[in-house]
Amino acid sequence: MLSGTGLVAGYRSGVPVLSEVDIQIARGEVVGLAGPSGCGKSTLARVLTLLMAPWAGQVSVDGEPVRGFRHAAPRAQRTAIGVVFQQPRLSVDPRFTLHQIVAEPLRANRKHPVDERVAELTDQVGLTAELLRRRPHEVSDGQLQRACLARALALEPRYLVCDEMTAMLDASTTAALVGVVADHSNSTGTGVLAISHDEPLLSVWADRVVRWQPTGEEQ
Ligand SMILES: Nc1ncnc2c1ncn2[C@@H]1O[C@H](COP(=O)(O)OP(=O)(O)OP(=O)(O)O)[C@@H](O)[C@H]1O
């Protein structure tokens, strides 16, 4: 279970964006999160992926409380949670080839032979060897997002947070990427938090949907 309990988080203004938020994502479960723009969905994604420290509350990964965030996050907990953001171009180093982008997390981890694992992942997300040699400005948003998804899956995370992963993509690429995540979750038991304002998409993708009101309260 990836869980957040009593989470309070915000930015410099001192006004919390998240107030006492509780959320649980079980292994193998796809939890949808919907809510109006600005209600704090991406903030919750940052806290749950350990990229931002909450002001109060607790994140736990498989029962183990998280004691550090950002650079202080324990590596085992950080790599247990993958993340894909809305805008792939803001999530990658523009100087890297797609191969280097997918391979990045594998470099610091000796568990997998890099080239074999990259080949496996690119096949899984529907990229070709030719596309892997290109840099971000030479591919479409959809192709780059496929690379970002492959990178997120590289270290076999136990949980995956998809923050508006398909918001910039057309219907067929959206269906393809959601299909990759759903197959992956079914075969490996990865728990997924799918954040989207696309209710029809969540209704087919998620096992259950949490709906936030502007105040951050659940419906
Ligand atoms: N880096 C930041 N610095 C200051 N305020 C921020 C920052 N990021 C987000 N906020 C503010 O926090 C609030 C919640 O933002 P957040 O991005 O979490 O909402 P969201 O529900 O994901 O919105 P959207 O659906 O538009 O992506 C907003 O009022 C936003 O302006």
UniProtKB/TrEMBL annotation:
GO MF annotation terms: ATP binding; ATP hydrolysis activity
UniProt keyword terms in alphabetical order: ATP-binding, Nucleotide-binding, Transport
Similarity remark: Belongs to the ABC transporter superfamily.
Record-annotated ABC transporter domain positions: 2-219
PROSITE patterns xrefs: ABC_TRANSPORTER_2 (PS50893)
InterPro entries registered for this protein in UniProt: AAA+_ATPase, ABC_transp_ATP-bind, ABC_transporter-like_ATP-bd, P-loop_NTPase
GO BP terms, alphabetized: transmembrane transport
The protein's name in its UniProt record: Peptide/nickel transport system ATP-binding protein
Keyword Amino-acid biosynthesis part of the UniProt annotation: no
UniProt superkingdom: Bacteria
